[in-house]
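Reading group handout, session on sequence-to-structure problems. Before we discuss, look at one worked example. The prompt was deliberately terse, the way you'd type it at a terminal:

> structure Glycoside hydrolase family 16 protein

The input record follows.
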Amino acid sequence: MATARPLRRAAERAAVTGLAAALALAAGPPAGGTAVSPPPLPPLPEISADVTASVPGPALGSALEPVLGDGTGALAPFSPEGSAAVFPEGSAAVFPGEPATALAGESAAVQADPADPAAPAGPSASERPPGRAGPYVFRDEFTGPAGRGPGASKWKQETGCMWGHGAEDQCYTGKGRNARLDGAGHLVITARSEKHVGTDGVARSYTSARLVSTSAWKGGTLEVRAKMSRWQAGAWPAIWLLGRPAARTPYYGEIDLMENGFTGRRWNPQYHVHTDGAGSGAGGEYGIDATRWHVYKVRWTTGPSGRVWFYLDGRLMRVLPYRVPSGSPAEVILNIAVGSRVGTPAAKLDSTLTVDYVRVRR
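And the output record:
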């Protein structure tokens, strides 16, 4: 810091001299009519790289770019879309005058410019998830040979032909008939046109699969990487959490991490929450190409102040209230329903939901 003092004194002398020159010019020439030239500015000492490091003050651009909260000053890389800053594990986003907003390993929403009402707003303190996600309590990477059904220790395949109060057009089958591994680390659920008579004696013209996790959790983080085939009328793929017991739905809540089909040919996935209180059905659209891989994630808490944080590809999309009884357990469901609320199904339906992984953290 001792080296910086002469620099500051030189800068102060230059500022004073420059001010005097400006005042002289503003006053105009003296009575004799001879113009007065401003005195030359004193030369500034040469500044070497090691000296600049000791000069106090923020680095250039520090007021414009987010920096890592570990004190290194390294700039955080932005995603190609420019809408989120992705931070390495164990770091946090720090914006000038703003508290940290990113969780470890997650994206931080860009802080809004108060002067720009259209700028995306970052999460407020009340919208940030509580703490960091814990260790994995459930994980399926769907490894195994092609044609094998999902692991019975992690998933149960619900069957039958009376779903959606009888309004849906599919029979759910078991034994891997409509849900199989592809041999490349993915689970593929297929809804197709075919005649089928369920064990309940009901006949349908479509078959599909509905997988339910064998475990349930009282809050945490669910993350699923998935993609869908192109739009076909009547296909209703979904990734969701359903509170137990299901017979009391929506009292124990439902979180639709992803469901598609309500937007018709636009084929734009949506997210929703359902409870038996105010705000049930709230949600929105993701605005993405559903046929490409995306990571859908939620963090959820229960109780009177329960909330759901919806993320897409690491970016926080929205926070919604989720007021269900404290400690209500919820199970994961992967399925493709057919018809009902998404319209009359195509005569030659062949729709798929491909899942890369399902991960749950406490």
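Points for discussion. First: The chain has three domains: 1-57, 69-123, 136-361. Second: The helical segments are 4-27, 49-52.
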